[in-house]
Design a protein that fits this description.
Rossmann fold, two-stranded parallel ribbon, single chain, binds NADP nicotinamide-adenine-dinucleotide phosphate, about 300 residues, about 15% strand, six-stranded parallel beta sheet
Length: about 300
């Protein structure tokens, strides 16, 4: 098997993928492949001629996307379509990521891949357009593609909910945190490992099982309970927190430019059945993230 080219290697999922791939990975970041300039992406693909391609780059600033939807569309839909077309034309398997934000999030049931979409935000719309661009570009040639819809990604490094909650709990005595959005926090290295396992299982099948799959850590929680688990882990490791009181609030009490789904529960059975992959529980993800964080920030 040849090498795997990963786009977006300065991001959470991209860097975790590159770390797992080691010298089997080729990392492309914004300097070597700019998603606002598809020609640079094609140049990277032509230079490296990879055996597999994974796109972890995306415009992920959910609130800012309300003001920059055109830019988000170029990065989240147009550029992935160009990569997908190159991969299809060269018979190269392609993995792309999408999001729970393609759903409108009513009710309490877990969504399956074929459920109707209905994004509430510009970010969600552009990610859905990305899914369509990838599957259409691939469809033209006979396809080998996997689109993984994931949710609430975080890591021990970078800018994310885990890091933000730790920082705020050291700075503030009181925090108000939304408790009516439900979903699964996903630890980036768990998603990266499952992605590589799924890709290798798809390649080993007589017919590549192209399509959209839900892939996130198992179980369900809300942001408030997730934050409480982060604070408990910090206290267990002897961190001195300023925080005295965490208050659960509703989404209506915390207006943001982009509307977010209340129900982000994703049904994971398709990936389990067809690709043989399953991530650990979100609690196991948090435990692993904490171990890494306190090992590297003693
Ligand atoms: N984060 C989440 O909670 C979440 C939830 C559901 C789905 N997802 C999806 O999961 C995938 C991975 O997300 P993530 O959390 O790893 O995102 P991330 O940490 O924000 O990383 C995204 C990467 O894309 C890069 N990027 C942005 N604009 C670019 C451009 N014009 N050219 C090249 N690269 C560009 C970023 O570079 P810079 O850092 O230099 O800007 C960054 O390295 C994405 O498809 C995302 O939509 C994420």
């Amino acid at each position: 098997m040849g090498r795997t080219l990963v786009f977006g290697t300065s991001g959470q999922v991209g860097s975790a993928l590159l770390e797992l791939l080691g010298d089997q990975g080729i990392g492309i970041d914004e300097k070597t492949g700019d998603f606002l300039n598809p020609t640079s992406l094609l140049a990277a693909l032509e230079t490296h001629r990879p055996a597999q391609v994974i796109n972890a780059a995306a415009y992920t600033a959910v609130d800012l996307a309300e003001k920059e939807e055109d830019k988000a569309h170029l990065i989240n839909a147009v550029a992935p379509g160009v990569i997908a077309q190159w991969c299809a034309g060269h018979g190269v398997p392609f993995v792309h990521y999408s999001t729970d934000y393609v759903f409108e999030g009513s009710g309490v049931s877990a969504r399956v891949e074929s459920d109707p979409t209905g994004p509430l935000s510009a970010y969600g719309r552009t990610k859905l357009q990305g899914e369509k661009a990838v599957s259409e570009a691939q469809g033209k040639y006979g396809s080998k593609f996997l689109i993984f819809r994931t949710s609430w990604v975080y890591d021990a490094v970078g800018k994310n909910f885990f890091r933000t909650m730790l920082r705020l709990a050291k700075e503030k005595s009181e925090l108000r945190i939304v408790s009516d959005q439900w979903g699964a926090p996903t630890y980036a290295p768990h998603l990266a490992a499952a992605t590589l396992a799924a890709l290798s299982s798809a390649c080993a099948k007589p017919e590549f099982p192209s399509g959209v799959y839900h892939l996130c850590n198992q179980g369900v929680t809300n942001w408030f309970d997730f934050a409480q688990a982060i604070f408990a882990a910090a206290r267990k490791r002897g961190e001195s927190l300023q925080l005295e009181k965490a208050i659960p609030i509703t989404t209506a009490d915390y207006p943001t430019p982009a509307k977010r789904p209340l129900n982000s529960r994703l049904d994971l059975s398709k990936a389990r059945t067809w690709l043989g992959v399953e991530l650990p529980s979100w609690q196991a993800g948090l435990e692993q993230c904490c171990e890494t964080f306190w090992r590297t920030h003693p």
